[in-house]
Amino acid sequence: MSKIVMCYVCVNCGNEMTDLYKQYSPSVLKLTNCTSCRRVADKYIEYDPVIVVIDLLLLNQEAYRHILYNTGFQNHWKLAVVLLLVEAYAEWTSVQGRSSDALSPSSHWFQGEEQFYFTCIYSVLGCGMFFSLVAAVTSARWWLLPAHKPPTYSFLVLWKGIVLGSFCRFLFIPSLIWGQVGSWHHVFITGYTLLAQLRAYSVVCNVSLMASAVVITLGIALKSLETHQVTSWVLGTAQSCLCHGSSSAGNHSGSCLA
Ligand SMILES: [Zn+2]
After folding, report:
1. 25 phi and psi angles, rounded to 5 deg
2. Which of 92, 200, 226, 233 could pair with 161 in a Cys bridge, judged by C-beta atoms 3.0 to 4.6 Å apart?
């Protein structure tokens, strides 16, 4: 007997489903009820994508399950790259705004450009460190409590969930358009992103928000400790290489004044 492949989940309870609807004709289909909670397994099949996005913004766990498990959305890596660039650019403009008065006009652009690349490296290392720590803590949890591990869990799904939970960083864009990112806006986006990542983690691991808060907060705390050390080493090495290259080429543009 061939093994039944479970591809979908019920957006209400997370139960695995073999199908979400039965199509009787090109214009007639019947949504499948979940065998566990007896509710319609995925109501979003009949909804407009705008409704799904609104529910995603409202941190609705049904919307997260729908996007993660029941859609063909496969561009998470593109979303991750765009979010990293947005975050790095927002941080870079914030630093540039604070330090522009201290820089001479001749060195402003060269030093600013370097700073942007360093900020990108910092963001990539920080996000990589954060995911690694969250995945490590989650693996330790499954090792201690193997019965609680959902069958749909994998590192890939966890990564997709964290990327999806980071979509709030798009809110940096209005600040970039209207001016520099203010501290109150930065705090709001950071808090909103934290809540979205908590929701995504709770959906992927099928745990409560409190348990998600423990893991995500631990990941953020450890990331902030480790990233500063790793990034300092990487940036120090990169800057020393740039300075060495500039000095050996006789470049007196002042790009290594920092
Ligand atoms: Zn269900």
Report:
1. -155, 170
2. 200
Our measurement of the distance from residue 111's CA atom to the centroid of its chain's CA atoms, rounded to an integer in Å, reads 29
- Check: CB of residue 197 under 8 Å from CB of residue 221: no
Distance between Cα 10 and ligand 1 center (Å): 5
Cβ atoms of 255 and 111 closer than 8 Å: yes
> Which residue, 151, 113, 213, 121, is CA-closest to 15?
151
Question: From ligand 1's centre to the CA of 11, what distance in Å?
Answer: 7
Q: Say which residues have a Cβ less than 8 Å from residue 234's Cβ, sequence separation at least 6.
A: 121, 125
Least confidently predicted of 168-172, 217-221, 222-226: 222-226
Nearest to 66 by CA among 80, 78, 76, 52: 52
Listing DSSP states for 224-238 in one string gives HHHHHHHHHHHHHHH
Q: Could you tell me the distance, in angstroms and rounded to a whole number, from the CA of residue 195 to the centre of ligand 1?
A: 24
Q: Provide the residue type at 218 as one letter.
A: L
| Residue found under tokens 């928000």 | 209
Read off the pLDDT band of 23 (50, 70, 90): confident
pLDDT tier, 232 (very low <50, low <70, confident <90, very high otherwise): low
How is the chain split into domains, by residue range? 8-69, 76-248
CA 150 to ligand 1 center in whole angstroms: 14
Q: How many residues does the chain have?
A: 258
